[in-house]
Amino acid sequence: MSIVLRARGLRKEYGRGSGLVRAVDGVDLDVAAGETVAVMGPSGCGKSTLLHLLGGLDRPSAGEVTLNGRRIDDVGERALARMRRTGVGFVFQSFHLMEELTAVENVELSALLAGRSPRPARRHAEQLLERVGLADRARFLPAALSGGQRQRVAVARALGNEPSIVLADEPTGNLDTAATLDVLQLFDSLHEAGQTLVIVTHDARVAATAERMISMRDGAFVDETRLTGGTTGRLGALIGLDD
Ligand SMILES: Nc1ncnc2c1ncn2[C@@H]1O[C@H](COP(=O)(O)OP(=O)(O)OP(=O)(O)O)[C@@H](O)[C@H]1O
Questions:
Q1: Best probe residue, ligand 1, of 21, 58, 59, 215 (max atoms within 8 Å of C-beta)
Q2: What is the full DSSP assignment across 30-77?
Q3: Region 4-22: what's the mean pLDDT?
Q4: What is the pLDDT of residue 232?
Q5: What is residue 173's predicted lDDT score, i.e. its pLDDT?
Q6: Is the CB of 241 under 6 A from ligand 1?
Q7: What Rg value do the Cα atoms of the chain yield, rounded?
Q8: Ligand 1 center to residue 50 CA distance, Å?
């Protein structure tokens, strides 16, 4: 079993003295190639901080993060940025699309930044938009798209650099039920295609669509469940979920 992402003794502290916050407090994690892992916990338990550490968007106070066998916590800024651009795809709650770029340009940018030349980058971006069901919206600006469509563009963008791992931070947090199901189905299809995926969410129903669900409290992992029965069946159980 090859491990794509590994964390050991991961900690992140903010502030000091009586204001000290241990946002992430000693996390160990192995994510195997092709696995979908959900980390679930209440607001403020440290999920976003953890995801930022795992993707090299932030530096830990202590501990190690390894992506494809290479440490990312102790490399210089430029090397870290390169690893992010080429190895990690991010999906955020609030989409973070470039508003002045069209859907296809948003996706293309990620491929360009990873080193593809312009023509292949555009072709790849168009294929990805087709994969997320938005080929007919390729030339739309984000403002002309629904929340669910924007998040699907964001997923396509996350795949633009053909990342080793996709890290999703509360990806359905701004979506209604129908769009939530769309995005979860999309993640399921990525999983079927072998994509490694980590999703953090406060929503137990969303977490329950993963193969492995880890519960987080006060910066630490407190429980882990391996879920069986196939994601499609679990997604089916979500149909009819209330907002
Ligand atoms: N830059 C910061 N400076 C100080 N404290 C911070 C900072 N970022 C996060 N924290 C604190 O760290 C803790 C964990 O925050 P984090 O955003 O990771 O939680 P979360 O589980 O993602 O919450 P939510 O679901 O509400 O987004 C919180 O107590 C938060 O206030």
A1: 21
A2: EEETT-EEEEE--TTSSHHHHHHHHTTSS--SEEEEEETTEE-SSS-H
A3: 96
A4: 57
A5: 93
A6: no
A7: 18
A8: 9
Residue having the nearest C-alpha atom to atom 12 of ligand 1: 23
Measured from the CB, is residue 88 less than 6 Å from ligand 1?
A: no
Please report the pLDDT score of residue 222 as a whole number.
96
The interface predicted TM-score (ipTM) is 0.95
| Contact yes or no for 195/164 (Cβ under 8 A) | no
As a whole number of angstroms, the distance between CA 193 and CA 164 comes to 13
For ligand 1, say whether the CB of 23 is within 6 Å of any of its atoms: yes
Element of type H or E holding 156 = helix 147-159
Q: Which residues contact 59 (CB under 8 A, 6 or more apart)?
A: 53, 73
Average pLDDT, integer, range 107-118: 94
The atom of ligand 1 lying closest to the CA of 219 is 14
Beta carbon of 46 within 6 Å of any ligand 1 atom: yes
The four Cα atoms 83, 84, 85, 86 give a dihedral, to 10 degrees, of 50
240 contacts: CB under 8 Å, gap ≥ 6: none
Cross-strand bridge partners of residue 217: 220
Range 66-91 burial, b when 16+ CB lie within 10 A, else e: bbeeeebbeeeeeebebbbeebbbbb
Does 49 sit in the ligand 1 pocket, CB within 6 Å? Answer: yes
Compute the distance from residue 153 Cα to the ligand 1 centre, in Å: 26
Q: What residue type is 121 in one-letter code?
A: A
The predicted-structure confidence for 163-179, as pLDDT tens digits, reads as follows: 999 999 999 999 999 99
